[in-house]
Design goal:
Strand content: 5-15%
Number of helices: 13
Structural class: alpha+beta
Oligomer: single chain
Shape: elongated
Largest sheet: 6 strands, antiparallel
Distance between the termini: 64 Å
Number of strands: 8
Order of helices and strands: HHHHHHHHEEEEEHEHHHEEH
Helix content: 25-40%
């Protein structure tokens, strides 16, 4: 079936471009943002605004999608759609209908279920007429909606490997920032100074030599997104110290939205907040290209000379010191969620002396323990 609508033509072209990609579609794919924006435009074309007065309480496509499990027979709905809707409803990182709709699109793409809401709304003519104008919309038009649904079916053939956690700025933009998850050693002070701007905990400064400053993990302008799995979008003052106190002695699990893209450009929503703080984003971008600002992995793994050849081999840290963001092509020592495979809590210290009977016994017991482990593995 030929595509005559210009918007559908554009969407079809983007679907074909993504299908031709050799690798999985990740957050920073060059076509992903345009694809997402075009898809959202289709969902919004001809969307009615039932129940609104003078533009207040403006609704979006997310509102009819979230109503499907309640309006239709729950037993007849694909569980994938129910899971997607409930996941978005329970997410604390998005606050608006726009943000929830965008998160739903990303979640459904990753789980190959974006075609389901369009298919289900066409099973209920009353619901379809309530939300869409058949003369101006694509979803409300019998022929165009059939073409659109076939294109959504095509997206099931595309592998979308998207970081669903990276969703805190979907209320504001389709641009996806750089997202990092860190595991810091137990400590009382990370060495970061925060300012709370528009519901975000923005890093205003980082103490030199602090835990957070190691390898430039946390930098000025970064936004704290999660702490111990708790969303910090809309965080109140005192909540972060409270969470740290509750988990004192445990490793610190922190997720951040980085201030800058890998190119050095400052993420636009963060740039707005930096200006409120009196920080010039252009200076941060200039610093990115400084010799001293070379990516930390180049300093972390300095090359060593090898007499037997001319190729420089990096001096890698031992397995226990390798970090999830080092991207080493070796067997990881961390679980897929970025946490250590073994939880260890710091409870205190005891002085056993330099040379004493107790330290000698400790050495004997430690050696005996290693022998037992090696025996068990062999």
């Amino acid at each position: 079936m030929s595509v005559s609508d210009p918007l559908l033509k554009r969407f079809k072209g983007l679907v074909l471009l993504l299908r031709n990609e050799k690798d999985a579609i990740r957050d920073h794919n060059s076509f992903l943002q345009q694809f997402s924006e075009t898809l959202e435009e289709v969902f919004r074309r001809g969307l009615k605004q039932p129940g609104t007065i003078f533009g207040f309480n403006k609704r979006d496509y997310w509102n009819w999608i979230e109503s499907l499990p309640d309006v239709l027979n729950v037993q007849s709905i694909n569980p994938a759609l129910t899971l997607s809707v409930s996941t978005v409803k329970n997410c604390k990182k998005v606050k608006s209908n726009q943000g929830r709709g965008r998160l739903f699109i990303r979640f459904a793409l990753a789980r190959k279920s974006l075609h389901l809401p369009v298919r289900y709304i066409h099973t209920n003519s009353t619901l379809l007429e309530y939300w869409y104008d058949p003369n101006t919309s694509i979803i409300g038009n019998e022929i165009l909606s059939e073409i659109f649904l076939s294109l959504l079916e095509e997206t099931k053939q595309i592998l979308f490997n998207l970081n669903i956690k990276n969703s805190s700025f979907l209320d504001e933009t389709w641009t996806i920032p750089v997202y990092k998850q860190f595991e810091f050693v137990p400590c009382r002070d990370l060495g970061i100074h925060l300012s709370y701007i528009k519901g975000r905990a923005v890093v205003a400064a980082v103490d030199i030599g602090s835990v957070a400053a190691e390898d430039n993990k946390i930098e000025t302008g970064d936004v704290l997104d999660e702490l111990y799995g708790v969303s910090l979008n809309g965080v109140r003052k005192g909540q972060i110290p409270e969470l740290l106190k509750q988990n004192q002695g445990w490793p610190i699990y922190l997720a951040v939205v980085k201030c800058q893209f890998l190119s050095g450009v400052v993420f636009p929503p963060i740039a707005q907040r930096l200006r409120i703080l009196g920080i010039d984003p252009t200076k941060l971008e200039a610093n990115m290209h400084n010799v001293e600002g070379v990516h930390h992995t180049q300093h972390r793994f300095p090359p060593v000379s090898v007499e037997s050849g001319t190729v420089a081999i990096p001096r890698l840290p031992p397995p226990h010191a390798q970090l999830p963001d080092d991207d080493l092509e070796q067997v990881p020592v961390n679980s897929p969620d970025g946490k250590a495979n073994y939880l260890v809590k710091y409870v205190g210290r005891v002085d056993v002396g330099e040379v004493s009977e107790s330290s000698s016994w400790s050495a004997i017991l430690f050696t005996f323990g290693l022998i037992r482990i090696i025996s068990a593995l062999s």
